[in-house]
Amino acid sequence: MPGYRALASDREFRALFTAHVVSVAGDQFARVALTVHVYDRTASAGLTALAYALTFLPDLIGGPLLSGLADRFERKQVMVAADLVRAALLLLMAVPGLPLWALAAVVVLVQFAGAPHGAARAALLPHVLPDERYPLGQAVMGTVTQAAQVAGFIAGGALVAWFGPALVLVADAVTFGVSAFLLGVFLLDRPAPVRTHRRAWPTDLVGGTRLVWGDRRLRALVALACVSGFYIVGEALAVPYAAQLGAGPAGVGMIFGAYAAGAAAGMLVVAHLKEEVQSRCMPWLAIAACAVLVPAALRPGLVVSVGMFALSGAASAYHLVANTRFVRAVPDESRGQAFGLAVTALRVSQGVGVALAGVAAETVAVHRVVAAAGALGVLAAGGAAILWRLSDASRSDGPSQSDAASRSDGRDGRWRKRG
Fold this sequence. Notes:
Layout: H1 4-8, H2 11-42, H3 45-53, H4 59-66, H5 69-72, H6 75-93, H7 100-128, H8 133-163, H9 165-186, H10 201-213, H11 216-226, H12 228-231, H13 233-236, H14 238-244, H15 249-271, H16 275-291, H17 302-315, H18 318-328, H19 335-361, H20 366-395, H21 401-405, E1 407-408, E2 415-416
Antiparallel strand pairs: 1-2
């Protein structure tokens, strides 16, 4: 397998990679700014968690309806347009005195614009890296993205404390402008995916849903991804959790950053495992990501809590395996739509989990809510692990629907019928 130097020499991958990392770091600035801003104005753990949940819930609509744009238009153009729209919306969020309802509405719109961007990036990467470099490229993207989240969360906490939320939101808008420039200048112009016939938008949506739901392995992968709706609770309640420990915005940044730092370290390890080992470890890591939160019931201090959240993030590296398996199993002409549907399930599970945790935190101590989410997550991850084991067993009896329908030719990312 080509090493990291081969990836670094690829001009398109460098642009895609840099643009993504820059915008991810800026997003963490904005996420810290949003949660601190809402908590400062309301002093409510529930409203703070609900505001955080708004960054996930719009995917319930945006994922299915807008991700298909990545299969209908040039994916480069889709990403550039989405970046410019998000930059403009973030500048609007920075307007002083914006009512909370208006702030929430703009947050929703920002997430809508992100749905086609993420689908286009995921669908384009196999074309940028059309050979055996693709899994390594996925690992590098995931690992350094988590590192950017660490830097963004930690720096975001400090920046909010120094300059206030408004300027931090402006900084996030600038990162999207930089991303749009890099993608527009350095990515090659590629036509929209070749389709055997043009289908109506609702037909694409129904077809993508059937594709994902009709394949045992794809269903199991989506179920494993949705486990994050449980272990993300600690991150979503970071502000009231830190307040409970007597820590300020810097403490919030440390808690946010702990998840990302752990995930970055975990991905470095998982990326270098053999594929069969990755598949075996994936469900166990999903269980571990939740199990390590259960000790929060003992109300540990900030240092222990940061370590606990870091371990949860490290175990969440199983998403790297699930994402790679999912994208490579879907035909190119439906890749954006299918990826959008999977992300919808992931984001909705996260949004619902965060919202319910926020409601619970209004009457129950925050550390107990985090511990309860971890315990329930262990049960959910166990069920998803059984689905994955059954889907693996079914492969020995015959090819799954996606296997029988298509395979990658290893050159241009297109898929062909098997004989």
